[in-house]
Structures are given as structure tokens and as C-alpha cells.
Write a structure and sequence with these properties.
Largest sheet: 6 strands, antiparallel
Strand content: 5-15%
Structural class: alpha+beta
Radius of gyration: 21 Å
Number of helices: 13
Low-confidence stretches: 1-20, 49-59
Order of helices and strands: HEHEEEEEEEEEHHEHHHHHHHHH
Helix content: 40-55%
Distance between the termini: 22 Å
Length: about 325
């Protein structure tokens, strides 16, 4: 296993570290590390008695950058945790929360800290049928910073639900999966409730400090998160912000380095990839869900931006 890490990570010839990052599935973690508290349906919760696989003595994978195919939630206990998310250094204090999305690049320095950690597969999330639109503000915030600061009361509440989930991982009753699904849904909605309020407060403070172009860009991204399923026209977003398309495009480019059209493509392609990989919708259904006139038009659009057809991408999952 370590030879594979070194081959992929220390490839100096390519000069592109991200292309050489090792990817690891939640299923592989469950197979590799005995004694972890796991649910075969796609949920891993650290056990306070066993320790955490993030600690050097328990698990080696996270000593080097890698991608995990699940949502990672980390609640430190007492000590600081040093690590990296998407090549940005992060330090977690005891009253902070870290959330990493599927595909984020994660590395954790060796530490004596054994934080409360959870990994949730996209399949398990899909089965509990959480409406991800409720978490849009938090997910937009994750683009810039995956670390959230909690009050003491908020952390105590999240610790309570995390430990409750952990204890129920040992439940061998007939409704084990259903109990874990309901407890996880409550836990995630508690996180969503905390983060939504926090993101609203942060957005107000940030907006007051931003220049005109940055405000336009932030408002555009907020609209794009809500409407990229149906709207791909730059003019639509310019009209919604009461701006001319020319001025709107110029402001977005100046604030972000990308054109409005490029940002629209990023959101639409990411949504298409997610649906192809994690949903049971047919390619035709996905095309109509994303407001393409025909599946053929959707196929050409997807291939233009990814280099492969929707069918080819779906086979990779």
C-alpha cells in the first residue's frame, strides 16, 4: 500500500500533484482496519474506546494526501489537530467542526488526538433522503473554508448525537439500519441548523466589507446555487441582479478570475456528475432535470466540458 502512495504522491515529473492523489473508498477503509465501528450500508463512526483511524498508531492512510468518497465530519476532543484540506493548511481547535465533501483532498498530521470522526457514503445519504437544498449556504461556504467555530452549547449538542450514533453502531437488532438512518438525519439537520445561522451572520459581515464587484459575485453565486438546474444563460443572472450583461460579466470576471459563463458551466457539470454517479436517474431523465432540450444536446455539452460522454462517465462509478 505504501509503495502505491509514494508512486502517486511523489511523482515530480508531472508537476501536477492533484492528478497523483490516491483515492480511497469507505468500503476499503472498512475492509482494511479491523475493529472500526462501521455500518455495511455506508457509515463509519469512530469508537472512543478503540481510538480513531486518523491517529498514527491506528491508521496510516491519512498521513499523505488522499481523496475519500464520502462526507467526513470531524469534532476534535481537546487537542489541536493539524492537517490540510485541498492543499490548504487547517488547524482544528476543540470547539471547531470540520466538514469535507466527497472528493476533497485530505491529509492529517500524526497526532495523539483521537477526534470524533464520521464518514458517510453518498449512497447512505441518498437513502436517508435529506433535502440537500437546506444545506446550500453551508456547502457554498465549504468552497472557501471547511472549518466552523461552535459555541460550547453547540458542540455539546453535536457530541451528544455523535456519541449516540456511535453507541448504536453495536445494535444488532432488526431495525439497526433504520435507527442509524434516523439518528444520522437528526445529527445532520442539527449541523445544518447551526451552520445556516452562522453562514447568514458571516454573509452579512462579509457583504459589508466587500467592494461592488465582490458583492455582485457573491450574489451571483447565491443565485447560481439555486437556479443552475434550470438556467444557464448569463442574461438571466444579470437581469435578476438588475445589471446589464456586459457590466455583470465584467464584475464577475474581475472579482473571481472566471467569467459568469464559466461559473455556470462549473455548477452544471458538477451537478451532472453527481447525478450520473450517485442517482438512479437515466441519462435522459438527467438531461431533462437539468433543462436540456434533448439528451443529445446534454451529451454534447457534457463531453465538451469533461472529455467523455455521460454514459462513459457513469461507467466509471
Amino acid at each position: 500500500m505504501f509503495s502505491l502512495f509514494f508512486l502517486r504522491y511523489f511523482d515530480a515529473k508531472t508537476g501536477n500533484m492533484e492528478q497523483n492523489i490516491f483515492s480511497l473508498s469507505l468500503e476499503r477503509i472498512m475492509e482494511t482496519v479491523p475493529g472500526l465501528k462501521c455500518c455495511e450500508a455506508g457509515l463509519l463512526v469512530t469508537d472512543s474506546s478503540h481510538g480513531c483511524f486518523l491517529a498514527e498508531t491506528d491508521f496510516y492512510y491519512f498521513r499523505y494526501p488522499l481523496r475519500i468518497d464520502g462526507v467526513i465530519i470531524v469534532l476534535p476532543r481537546t487537542n489541536r489537530i493539524k492537517g490540510m484540506v485541498n492543499f490548504h493548511k487547517r488547524i482544528l481547535d476543540e470547539r471547531q467542526l470540520l466538514i469535507c465533501r466527497p472528493g476533497d483532498i485530505v491529509q492529517v498530521d500524526a497526532s495523539e488526538e483521537r477526534p470524533r470522526t464520521m464518514i458517510i457514503s453518498p449512497r447512505f445519504l441518498q437513502e436517508i433522503q435529506i433535502d440537500v437544498k437546506a444545506f446550500v449556504p453551508a456547502f457554498v461556504r465549504l468552497n472557501s473554508n471547511p472549518v466552523f467555530t461552535l459555541t460550547e452549547a453547540q458542540k455539546e449538542e453535536l457530541v451528544f448525537y455523535h456519541d449516540l450514533l456511535e453507541r448504536n453502531m453495536d445494535n444488532d437488532g432488526p431495525y439497526r439500519i433504520e435507527i442509524l438512518q434516523r439518528l444520522l438525519a437528526v445529527y445532520l439537520f442539527k449541523i445544518g441548523e447551526i451552520l445556516k445561522l452562522q453562514c447568514i451572520d458571516e454573509a452579512s459581515a462579509v457583504k459589508a466589507a466587500l467592494g461592488r464587484e465582490e458583492q455582485i459575485f457573491n450574489d451571483f453565486i447565491t443565485l447560481l446555487a439555486k437556479h443552475h438546474f434550470t438556467e444557464r444563460r448569463v442574461e438571466y443572472y444579470a437581469d435578476a441582479l438588475f445589471l446589464s450583461p456586459k457590466y455583470f460579466s465584467s464584475a464577475v470576471k474581475k472579482a473571481s478570475g472566471r467569467t459568469a459563463g464559466e461559473w455556470i458551466d462549473v455548477y452544471v457539470v458538477q451537478e451532472a456528475k453527481s447525478l450520473l454517479k450517485y442517482s438512479d436517474l437515466s441519462i435522459q431523465e438527467i438531461a431533462y432535470h437539468l433543462n436540456f432540450a434533448t439528451p443529445s444536446f446534454f451529451g454534447k455539452y457534457f463531453k465538451q466540458h469533461t472529455g467523455m460522454s455521460p454514459g462513459e462517465y457513469r461507467v466509471l462509478r
